[in-house]
Amino acid sequence: ADIISTVEFNHSGELLATGDKGGRVVIFQQEQENKSQSHSRGEYNVYSTFQSHEPEFDYLKSLEIEEKINKIRWLPQKNAAQFLLSTNDKTIKLWKISERDKRPEGYNLKEEDGRYRDPTTVTTLRVPVFRPMDLMVEASPRRIFANAHTYHINSISINSDYETYLSADDLRINLWHLEITDRSFNIVDIKPANMEELTEVITAAEFHPNSCNTFVYSSSKGTIRLCDMRASALCDRHSKLFEEPEDPSNRSFFSEIISSISDVKFSHSGRYMMTRDYLSVKIWDLNMENRPVETYQVHEYLRSKLCSLYENDCIFDKFECCWNGSDRQVGFMDIVMTGSYNNFFRMFDRNTKRDITLEASRENNKPRTVLKPRKVCASGKRKKDEISVDSLDFNKKILHTAWHPKENIIAVATTNNLYIFQDKTN
Amino acid sequence: MLGRGLKRKLSDYEENMAGLSSAFDSSRNLSYPLKRQLVLNMCLTKLQTYKMLVEPNLHRSVLIANTVRQIQEEMRQESNQQPINVCPGITPSSHSYTGMESSGVSLQLPSGISQQESNCCDLRSVEDPIENSLLIVSDDDMSSAISSILKDLDFVEDISPPTCLVPTGDDQPKFAENTGLKLEDDRQDLKGAECVFGSFEISNSTSYLKDLAIDDIFEDIDTSMYDSDFCCPPLMPPRSPSLAAEEPLKTFPSCNSSSANNIQICRTDLSELDHIMEILVGS
Q1: Where are the alpha helices (DSSP H) in B200-258?
Q2: CA quadruple A14, A18, A24, A30: dihedral positive or negative?
Q3: Which residues of chain B make contact with A203, given a CB cutoff of 8 A?
Q4: Which of B129, B183, B131, B147 is nearest to B51 (CA)?
Q5: How far apart are CA B60 and CA B48, in angstroms?
């Protein structure tokens, strides 16, 4: 139940939300920066914990609906309260997180503990006043968007109009208005009339960061479709289809399985998008459909282990990927990050073309020390400090990572733990 | 020496599979057709396991089914060029791996097929234990296996409609203006029949069902099929192909013999149920 299933920073980076398999959301808040301690930015401490989803039983189908949180997406902040969308397989909920640090005191008819006073004992009247109290963070569900998905929801994405959002399951994508819970519009439907003809499912979807009419969705066949909602109400015909022709030299029985895209993310400008398949990260220019502009190998050494990884189901692991924050403090950075096995995660610098492998592990890294780069030895003689492919732990997978929107702080989730790293500041 | 028909424990099976797949990866001793057969068997095993689940993972099932189809296509093309002796009548569900056993094939087979199958396998070289442990599966059985799995997914998943476009005068046009969307009424017509469930908010109101005696509600629904003893170990005793297709349908209440009829019957039952629910909810 403590398995982390999603990680997401809010728009300011002050809050970091995690969802887990038990349906809980835990939000961390960054401490205010201490001016005297300029060497480290604020630490993240637990701010709020609440149960977002409970397990449900669908009596008609005799199915249990898991409470696992698949995705969390924050809304931009409009007032004192924070809002986020969290979803399990079937239901999306809008949560309001608000602070309470004052409470009214001095009621006339009630004692402080809530008991009612005998009216005959009241001799004077006073006006209740607000007095400070210990900070209390409350989370309350404001909207519940249910009953619109037959299949399992894999993505939610808030539109740049901040009024609508999309939710995607294996075969359909629905468009919602944040204020309206009893209906949604179906904008993509790839379910064939005859299920026996089904060969492709939707794996991820996202709205364009700037154009509120544009969204993309990825498929299990390694394609990405860009759709324009202005073209028609049902976007079954794509405006663009992004697909890289297969490399015949790499063909294997598992080619299709490893081409399935597990995550798609637009760049902050909206000019590029990044996709993650089993072995690589690809950067696509929205203006070029026939191949990606860059491809980064995450763990190419696994290509010769595909049968074993298929046998133990690891080949179906869905890794996410993320871009670095948009406000770059030092220079012009363009880095993408994704996870791997053995609690390794990888970063690729698009400018220098350098890449690094780091490990999220308490045993191998003391707090506040600089992470040591790791290296996996694919074959041949293993050098000192290298790890051979056969000794990788495939149960230790990093599927979820997030990058602070403004600073060089990253959140990396191993199976049960959340690690927060920041870059070294002098 | 292990006799024929000895049931292997699941852990042994897993170890053997791991041995086979690492043999595949290191490309030792395995020719291309053998590798292909191994992958095919792994796929079919997984599909079989998924069929056992109440709610199989659609994404994985589709990927595995595609892999099976691809291998099937390749094998079909090869057999068109070169006729190969393929043993018919062996379903994907009949397997138990012997791994490195060299004493021959130990399998669980229906009595009618065993003779045929062992004859067929005797044609292959006895020295290679890996070859002996891999079964040859016919095209038709694979196709029917994939079809039945995908059909099941349809039946399991799509009882309730995904969306319901409800035109409600004022709100709708306003929203359409804001986002520039055009509603398509014909889409709604298709889903109209299923929309009978659309207004019924199941997930928000499941709690009341806990208070009711569920047995009383379902008294008039035929659950004789549902009562049958469906508890199979992961390595299922094999059945003939015709039975294999019927099996998944048995797991659902009120299901009888063949496909289209079933869904009609079940939908009728469900609409009755819906009617009952409406009364209970008082909507």
Answers
A1: 207-211, 214-217, 241-250
A2: negative
A3: 59
A4: B147
A5: 12
Residue B105 reports pLDDT greater than 50 = no
Q: Does B221 touch chain A (CB under 8 A)?
A: no
Q: Decide if A164 contacts B179 (C-beta within 8 A).
A: yes
| Selection from B248, B227, B271 nearest residue B47 by Cα | B248
Q: Tell me how far CA of residue B148 lies from CA of B65, B88, B250, in angstroms.
A: 11, 19, 12
Two tokens, residue B125: 């070289």
Cα A23 to Cα A15, A53, A70, A100, A210: the distances in Å are: 19, 5, 9, 24, 31
B224 touches chain A (CB under 8 A): no
Tell me how many domains chain A contains. Answer: 1
Total residues belonging to chain A: 426
For the record, the structure tokens of A161 come out as 């109009």
Nearest-angstrom CA–CA distance, A263 and A156? 12
pLDDT tens figures, A47-82 = 999 999 999 998 888 889 999 999 999 999 999 999
Q: With an 8 Å Cβ cutoff, is B19 touching chain A? A: no
Domain interval for residue A17: 1-69+80-101+132-145
Cβ–Cβ of B202/A147 closer than 8 Å?
yes
Mean pLDDT of A360-369: 82
pLDDT digits (tens, 9 = 90+) for B46-58: 999 988 887 889 9
Cα A37 from Cα A52, distance rounded (Å): 36
With contact defined as beta carbons under 8 Å apart, do A266 and A281 qualify? no
d(CA A242, CA A216) in angstroms, rounded, equals 10
A61: left (phi over 0), alpha (psi -120 to 50) or beta: alpha
Kindly list the residues from chain B whose CB atom is less than 8 angstroms away from the CB atom of residue A305: 25
B154 touches chain A (CB under 8 A): yes
Of A58, A148, A311, the CB nearest to B18: A311
Residue A139: beta bridge partners?
Answer: A97
Residue linked to tokens 């609409």: B271
Q: Fill in the amino acid letter for B199.
A: S
Q: What is the ipTM of this complex?
A: 0.91
For chain B, the structural domain boundaries read 30-79
Is A33 within the bounds of a domain?
A: yes
- A338: how many CB neighbours lie within 10 A of its CB? 24
pLDDT for B142 equals: 65
The Cα–Cα gap between A354 and A412 comes to 20
What is residue B228's DSSP assignment? S
- Could you list the beta-strand ranges (E) of chain B: none
DSSP conformational letter for A316:
G
Asked if B204 lies within 8 A of A144 by C-beta distance, the reply is: yes
For residue A315, being part of any structural domain is answered with no
Element (H, E) at B23: helix B10-25
Q: Cα–Cα distance between B96 and B109 in angstroms, integer?
A: 10
Q: Which amino acid is at A128?
A: P
B contacts of A90 (beta carbons < 8 Å): 203
Interface-testing mutation among A149, A223, A253, with chain B (most B C-beta atoms within 10 A): A253
